[in-house]
Structures are given as C-alpha cells and as structure tokens.
Design goal:
This protein is α/β, with parallel strands linked by helices and 271 residues long. It has two domains: 133 residues, 3-Layer(aba) Sandwich (Udp-n-acetylmuramoylalanyl-d-glutamate--2,6- Diaminopimelate Ligase, Chain: A, domain 1); 114 residues, NIF3 (NGG1p interacting factor 3)-like (Udp-n-acetylmuramoylalanyl-d-glutamate--2,6- Diaminopimelate Ligase, Chain: A, domain 1). It has eleven helices and eleven strands. The strands form two sheets. The protein has a six-stranded mixed beta sheet, with helices on both faces. It has a five-stranded mixed beta sheet with strand order 1-4-3-2-11, with helices on both faces. Helix 5 packs across helix 9. The protein is elongated. The relative contact order is 0.16.
Length: 271
C-alpha cells in the first residue's frame, strides 16, 4: 500500500477543488508514492504527534488544519514550523491536509457535527456549503445550551442572546458551522435559523448575530471538529480495510490536541 491509496480515497470523498480559494489543502510535505507503514489522523500536527509518529515509524499524517496555511510565508529553520518540517524531511514523513473541502463534504465535518447535535431534517443552503436542521422538538435556549455544553464537554462555551430573546424562549432550527464561523449570515436569515452553533467567532460577528436576532452557541473549535476527523479515519479504515490488513498498516487517531485547558484543572493542580 502506498500513500496515494489513502490520499486518492480522501480526494474522492472531499475533492480538493471544493476547498475555499484562500485555503491551502492537499500535500504539505513528502511524497504520495512512498510505501505506507502507518497513518495518523489528527486535527492539528503538534510537535508531540510528530514526535510520536517518528518514534513509532509512522510515515503518513493526515491533518484537518493545514500544516502550512500561508503558501507565500517565509519559513525560518529555527521557527516552530521550520523545526517540524526539518523532522518531517529527516524521518521521510508525508503530511496531507484536508481542510475546508472536508468541512463541506457530504459526510464531512459539518455533517458529523450536525448529527452529533441531534439535528433532523438536515438541509444544505442554496450556496451548497452551509448546513441547517431542526431540533427534535422546541427547546428553551438555556436548556439547549446546557445540554450541548455537557454533551461536547465544552468548558469554554459562550452564548450570544439577542435582546429580543430570553433564556426561556424556544429555538427550533439550528445552523451549524464547525470550527470558526465564517461570518456569512444571509443563509441564516434566509432559512429561518433560530440559533447558530459553531466553534468560535469574531467579536464583531457576535454583535452582528445579536442585532439580527439570531442566538449563537460557541462550543470550542476543537470540540466541534474532532468528531469529523475521527469519522474520516473510520471511513478510510473501513473502505480500505483489506489493503490495510494485508500490508499491516495501522490507522491511529490523535484526539488529544486541544490547545486549551479547563481553568478548574489548573486550580485543582495548584497552578
């Protein structure tokens, strides 16, 4: 089995041409033609994951967030990214990234996120990108927020509540935007969305939603995307099962890369 077997499958599932124009997806480093000894799926390629992959002899890393966001940026050898790239080259590791193309793919991160939220009658807006659906039944904003904060184990959730709404008011229709809200609001208004559920958003976007009368719940960037990464790994493992088993290629998921920690954790440890 070669890296191209896995990469080609991903590119059918989440075609690179569907990524946003500003995005950088695809091969970040290495070669598609190398023989695969093992693969790790992760949200971000941290130094810890890279070290563990190198020590375990794993030579393919599939990330959601691009290892290199800015294709024009100068990469200094002594920078964090420069050191990672040096290790990648030394250990002959290939890094592949599927970002916004995976967000918007059928069965991709937004769809997994919506399913995890329990939305029904899911639809895609006319732009072909944004997803929205109904809750199984009307829910008070406060109840919905408390339930989903607990479900996603989110310790840094935030809520935007318009002046026209109270915590006891019901919401019926939710829009989803995994990771970071892109600031597009037309589809929310057009489809009668009561509450947007996302990972994070900019301050001025929160103000805009508040003034549009649309509630919002931020659950954390990591929390809204890691399930989609796990789902992609599961799809690849199932679809290429015979090849993976024949060549004894292990498929691993790095699911502990959230850069944030709970302030209570720090307090409990006396920090």
């Amino acid at each position: 089995m070669r890296h191209s077997d896995i990469i080609d499958w991903i590119e059918v599932f989440a075609p690179v041409e569907t990524a946003c124009e500003w995005d950088n997806v695809g091969l970040m480093a290495g070669s598609r033609d190398d023989v695969t000894r093992g693969v790790i799926f992760c949200l971000d390629l941290t130094a810890d994951i890279l070290d563990k992959a190198a020590r375990a002899g794993i030579n393919l890393i599939v990330t959601h967030h691009p290892l290199i966001f800015d294709r024009e940026a100068e990469i200094k050898p002594d920078s964090v990214l420069g050191k990672k790239l040096a290790t990648i080259a030394e250990k002959k590791i290939t890094v592949y990234s599927a970002h916004t193309n995976l967000d918007y793919a059928r069965g991709g991160i937004n769809d997994v996120f919506a399913s995890r939220l329990g939305l029904v009658k899911m639809k895609t807006d006319q732009d072909g990108l944004h997803r929205f659906g109904d809750l199984p039944g009307p829910r008070a904003v406060s109840e919905f927020v408390d339930e989903k904060t607990a479900d996603f184990n989110s310790f840094n959730s935030k809520v935007v509540l318009p002046d026209s709404m109270s915590p006891d008011d019901n919401v019926v229709r939710a829009g989803v935007c995994c990771g970071s809200f892109d600031g597009e609001t037309d589809w929310l208004v057009r489809n009668g969305v009561d509450i947007l559920v996302t990972g994070e958003m900019k301050h001025h976007h929160a103000i805009l939603l508040k003034e549009l009368g649309i509630a919002a719940l931020e659950l954390g960037h990591y929390e809204t995307e890691i399930d989609g990464v796990k789902s992609l790994a599961a799809h690849v493992k199932k679809s290429l099962e015979s090849q993976l088993q024949q060549d004894k290629v292990s498929v691993k998921i790095a699911s502990k890369t959230n850069p944030y920690c709970d302030i209570l954790f720090l307090e409990e440890n006396g920090l």
